[in-house]
Amino acid sequence: MTNDATPIARRGHDVLIESVDVHAFEVPTDGPGGSEQDGTLEWDSTTLVLVRVRAGDRTGIGYTYGDVSVAAFADSKLAPLLQGADALSPPALWARMGARIRNAGRTGVGAMAQSAVDVALWDLKARLLDVPLVRLLPSFHDRVPVYGSGGFTNYPLGRLTDQLAGWVEQGIPRVKLKTSRNPAQDPARLSAVREAIGDAPALFTDANGALSRKEALYWAHRFAEEWDVSWFEEPVASADLEGLRLLRDRGPGRLEIAAGEYAYVLRDVTNLVAAGAVDCLQADVTRCGGITGVLQVAGLSAAHQIDLSAHCAPALSAHAFCAVPRLRHLEYFHDHVRVEGLLFDGTLSPDGGALRPDTGRPGLGLDVRWADAEAWRVYGAHDG
């Protein structure tokens, strides 16, 4: 440790990565009966895969959400690649990681592992320079508007309305609920929510790909006409580009179709845009290649004049999506807000319906709460 107060990265010499370690924590949900549901999936826990990268006297952190196998993938395929590499070149290392995992599988688990490592590299670089990450990135904004997201299909009506109305009371002017697991139940759910939040807030729905094309078209018209729904996310499977385009072409004019959260490589995003499949594009920093991936998607959305919405991981997305020219908003997702609050110090809370990155802390501004996290550890070990 040197007494020189100048940040290491500004002292005129290379900064090489010394170590990489990977951890995973599985946190049970707080849903009814210990589970949560959307249109196509039921789960009882959320697993956060954490990567730490050290260089000089700084440590950067990044994470993704997925199975514990993502941790093993990052540990075996990516961590050895970074040893001794230049800590100040995240995009170059991003490209090297992509080449390394080609045969192991770049999409899915591979992309999620790469995303977590890439975020850690950007966080490390910002800490080495002693600047907040939002200041290191080519930012266009100093805050990211949010929408409250949860409203799981197995919530009783009281919990459903309390959750969404609670976000509105916090000053969040747009909220989303899950739909389409049992479509016959959705009218009562939507009516209760609309009554609870009032007429002014924007109401979003997310089917998670549960519907056929004709079912989705039927519900698109009902959602818009009866409950003034303005956003219909993944009405059909996100891989059904023709079905998404059908909803755009034949659905209500004021109802936007959204997809993109399962884009792992840039070609996935390109396919959605080229097909005219969405009114608003989505990207997930923990899936699409991390911050380097988000910057690429941001360029594509700007070139095609289509807005980009951040999918989940609010503590990361608040920084990353300030660098998106055509930023729409960020999904302030109940599960991720809860897990990040349990595992980290330095998380952000909405103010005026937006998250503003903390410019008084270097990097992402996050510190792991190791003592609390140990109760949920399922991979790795903390060396103190």
As residue ranges, the low-confidence spans are: none
Strand order of the largest sheet: 6-7-8-9-10-11-12-13
CATH topology of the largest domain, what is it called? TIM Barrel
* E-strand count: 17
CATH classification, class level of the largest domain: Alpha Beta
How far is the N terminus from the C terminus?
18 Å
Give a description of the structure.
The protein is of the alpha/beta class and 384 residues long. The protein folds into two domains: 8-131 and 370-379, Enolase-like, N-terminal domain (Enolase-like, domain 1, 2-Layer Sandwich); 135-367, Alpha-Beta Barrel (TIM Barrel). Helices cover 39% and strands 22% of the residues. It has helices at residues 69-82, 90-100, 102-105, 109-129, 133-136, 157-169, 186-197, 213-227, 241-250, 266-274, 290-303, 314-320, 334-343, 370-373, and strands spanning 17-28, 36-37, 42-43, 45-55, 58-65, 144-150, 174-178, 202-206, 229-233, 256-259, 280-283, 308-310, 327-333, 344-345, 354-355, 367-368, 377-379. An eight-stranded parallel β-barrel has the order 6-7-8-9-10-11-12-13, surrounded by seven helices. A four-stranded antiparallel beta sheet has the order 5-4-1-17. A two-stranded antiparallel ribbon has the order 2-3. α1 (69-82) crosses α2 (90-100). The longest helix has 21 residues, at 109-129. The radius of gyration is 21 Å and the shape is globular. The protein starts with 16 loop residues before the first strand and ends in a 5-residue tail after the last strand.
